[in-house]
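Reply to dn_fold:

You asked what the input looked like. This is it:
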Amino acid sequence: PCMTEIKVLNLVYDEFKFNPKVLIVSICRDSPEEILNFLKNHSVLYPIISNYKAYKNNYLLPGFPLTILFNNSLLISSIEIGSSVEVNDLFIRNKANIYINLINDYLSLQN
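and this is what came back:
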């Protein structure tokens, strides 16, 4: 798993963990065994799926790391490909806030 995305998505997950309209999931290239070993030393708050080939082929995903936000009709509302070169706590918080704001904007349209 991408360490930057884990930190960002942990913040996003923490914001919406009790909202049944929001689901945070990571699709990973690593095997289940590699993921379990990774999780022994790293905190990931959301589920990780290891069968990335099925998702990559079925959804024509261009590669990893990749962050996609879907709405409840499974239509894509945002895509980010790749990771950032310079990463610090402010960057992680700002990136998480972008996702949180996009999700909140979408949720406000549903009310």
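The beta strands are 26-27, 48-49, 66-70, 76-81.
Hope that clears it up.
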